[in-house]
Amino acid sequence: MDISPSDLIILRMLQENARERLETIATETGLSVATVQRRIRNLKADGAIMSENALISPKAVGYAMTFLVFVELEHERIDQIDAFRRKAKAEAQVQQCYYITGEADFALIALARDMEDYEQLTHRLFFQDSNVKRFRTSVVMDRTKVGMNVPLG
Amino acid sequence: MDISPSDLIILRMLQENARERLETIATETGLSVATVQRRIRNLKADGAIMSENALISPKAVGYAMTFLVFVELEHERIDQIDAFRRKAKAEAQVQQCYYITGEADFALIALARDMEDYEQLTHRLFFQDSNVKRFRTSVVMDRTKVGMNVPLG
DNA sequence: GATGAAACCGTTGACGC
DNA sequence: GCGTCAACGGTTTCATC
Fold this sequence. Notes:
CATH topology of the largest domain in chain A: Alpha-Beta Plaits
CATH superfamily of the largest domain in chain A: Lrp/AsnC effector binding domain/regulation of amino acid metabolism (RAM) domain
Low-confidence stretches of chain A: none
Helix content of chain A: 25-40%
Structural class of chain A: alpha+beta
Number of helices of chain A: 5
Mean pLDDT of chain A: 95
Number of domains of chain A: 2
CATH architecture of the largest domain in chain A: 2-Layer Sandwich
Shape of chain A: elongated
Oligomer: homodimer
Largest sheet of chain A: 4 strands, antiparallel
Number of strands of chain A: 5
């Protein structure tokens, strides 16, 4: 998969705004509208553009709190790791799940309506799971930077 | 700002796919296409829909590595915290920045092309900054769950 | 395989109810 | 609040190079 300089411009513009007009992109890249469209189709087919999503404000729908949680498993065995991975993935309130090196095995970004809601989440994810040795919670006071943006050009 | 059950359906569908057809949403919600369109406009105006973005594969553009970094500042003073916040925000390779409670002050999700690239980032962000007392890096082995999805109904 | 033109489909905004 | 319609942008197809 090779990405040309004009592809980078296309990706940058669509990352910023998925509804960017093709004509604007064409002007910016010096390509024709038809070519821009084909490039976008190819970038999607190649998996460079994975999806196009609306970014929803958690607060607007009642998720006022964000947590960063570190999880240590009892045994670092593939089956245990996979089992926890699946569980975290299935939980809607777990926004992101990272399998990491270092003291902890996993880091999670989780959303909750309030503290009680978070406590219930910890019961589902950690207390009811004998694989989980311990977990530590950091409350997120401010999400200074959000999104999944990738540096492009 | 009140969110009706049909608004939740709209948000859920657009979060999944920003290009979901209005007609499909109308069928799913039992609303007319025109109403769906108005709801979406209102949800954007209210800030419930913050933006629509293409999700780019970091690997496709050469960012093969992800890091989770904890940063401790020398003094937990507002001006120092704000200064670091701004710096992290301005750095394209910092995908997310969280101001958190607990041992560390900040947690960052950062992208790098390779280890050398990451090392350079640490120089820009941490070593050149006398505000930064220390930082710890976890390498992300697997991004099990990505995105900024919010639980919706 | 890449390009441009044209027909088709979906979205947007204005108008009227 | 609701639907209708015209204008606009996006998508597909096709002819051409």
